[in-house]
Amino acid sequence: MKLYVALLVTLLGVHISGTPVELQRMIDDTHREMLTGNFMVPHANEDKDLDTMGLIKKYGYPAEEHTITTADGYILTVHRIPHGRVETPPPEGGRPVVWLQHGLMCSSSDWIMNTVEKALPYRLAEAGYDVWMGNARGNTYSKGHVTLSNKEEQFWQFSWHEMGMYDVPAFIDYALDVTGQKDLYYFGHSMGTTMFFTGMSLRPEYNSKIRLMNAFAPVAFTEHMISPIKLIAPFSASIEWLLNFFKAWEFLPSNEIMDFLGATICHEESLIQGLCSNVVFILCGFNSEQLNTTQLPVILTHTPAGSSVRSLVHYAQGVNSGEFRMYNHGKAGNLLHYGQEEPPNYDVSKITAPVAFYWSENDWLGVKADVYRLAELMPNLVRKYRVPHDKFNHQDFLWAIDSPSLLYETVEDFMKRF
Ligand SMILES: *[C@@H]1O[C@H](CO)[C@@H](O)[C@H](O)[C@H]1NC(C)=O
Q: Is residue 292 within 6 Å of ligand 1 at its C-beta?
């Protein structure tokens, strides 16, 4: 077992010595920021032990938990804030529904990791929306299945392809059924956008149920990704093989690969241990200007919330192929799954729902070149907004100190047009 890890680390090490200049520069900047960042992570924040329901209730909002079973048997837990702190009578026709879909390694709780005045779900609930937050298959809240156990390999044989194909339609059907609304506003962050793009292209009949899609840090093409995910891309096939060998289908942050990637980002002498071993900061980068360190203990205990190895590998495959396409099972597997040797591309021309893009300059995953390429192909792109802050990064869409003035206020204004 150690031998394989050593082999892999050697392969990765060789690759890192030849990393693209831009990637190296960003990693160096992060090193510097982590070393010179003049702060310590505080240990006390009582919110760190509360789950999504506990947090919502603590801040005086109505909280509901619902369980949804997908067509392929996954049991998903979703959370709802049906109205603001003080219940006002709903407008004629009922409250408009908002669905918030988290990204890779995240959960419903990541939307409420900012302070109560700033977190998007609370803002939307106060603005009169009926707010729902999904949990994709495989995360902390969604590890059930009608017949499979999450200890079995078969449970973990999914990526964001299946989340788009099954989870997104199940979420939409359920929320519209409970509320009696005919459509909803969908918000996606990162993988939450990927799920939407795959879902709407595979199940185009759902486009008419979307009033507006707000895509935060949109991710479909990953060719220009700067994240360390890029480092594993050339070895994505061997990594999946390796993790299968270790029976590590669930993506856990404590495996050797994460330790290794952590070591490339953080110096050993770094004081900020929590950050350096947390997969979310390793994969998404770090921006001390917009990160509220008092909230950090809460973030670190809730995130990462888990996913399948295959979700990560599917992104890494996109770095290699340069395409937004279905999972690559290898030639023989592809023939079996798709009847052709190469995986088919997702047909983004089928995404006819109105889509607004919100992207930022310092995003390692939703990189401008990839975001713009997707934007060109979107049949109904209604907005392309750059967050006006040069250091705004992938996770700042959720947690930034200035997220209201940089992002949420303009998003909320724009939504009213639909
Ligand atoms: C950071 O979060 C704490 C609560 O954990 C809050 O009291 C404080 O105002 C926040 N700081 C900023 C700059 O938003």
A: yes
